[in-house]
Write a structure and sequence with these properties.
Oligomer: single chain
Radius of gyration: 15 Å
Number of domains: 1
Distance between the termini: 22 Å
Order of helices and strands: EHHHHEEEHEHEEH
Largest sheet: 7 strands, mixed
Strand content: 15-25%
Shape: globular
Structural class: alpha+beta
């Protein structure tokens, strides 16, 4: 994959805790609250769990942040810092509506759907899963296509 990054912001925040906090990143990993999050956290450090995480991401419901409450609203784009000091603009999806609200606030509009439906909708864009949380995953369009090529269960 050209860009499939499990971002362990905990490593960065251990080196520069003030910088991580200033950028709005959580300092501690999430405590999994659903099967998708359990697989996501496990996949961070256990490569054998990554196929399980991928299948769960595609089959479980996720929350997609939207720019408005209109039926045809587009995804909310967020800037994700890159290793080179730049920013990657990504559509934001979360492992639950509670996670979305905890990061973006209660006023942000969102839709829930399966991860497969979300990635299909966002196939031409960069995507970030669990923006500003640990773990966080960024996908470029080629990575999204690779995820979508995973057969349905």
């Amino acid at each position: 994959m050209r860009r499939r990054t499990f971002v362990a912001a905990a490593l960065a925040s251990a080196a520069t805790p003030l910088a991580a906090r200033a950028q709005g990143f959580s300092v501690a990993p999430i405590t999994p609250a659903n099967p998708l999050e359990e697989a996501f956290v496990s996949a961070l450090n256990t490569p054998q769990m990554r196929p399980i995480f991928r299948r769960r991401l595609l089959s479980e419901r996720v929350a997609v942040a939207l720019v408005s409450g209109e039926p045809d609203a587009g995804p909310l784009s967020v800037p994700v810092p890159t290793q080179g000091g730049g920013r990657l603009v990504c559509a934001a999806i979360f492992t639950s509506s509670d996670r979305l609200i905890s990061v973006l606030g209660a006023d942000v509009q969102f839709a829930t759907m399966t991860g497969r439906a979300a990635l299909t909708r966002l196939a031409s864009q960069n995507v970030v899963l669990n923006y500003r949380l640990i773990p966080m995953l960024t996908l470029e369009p080629a990575d999204v296509a690779e995820y979508l090529a995973t057969p349905a269960e």
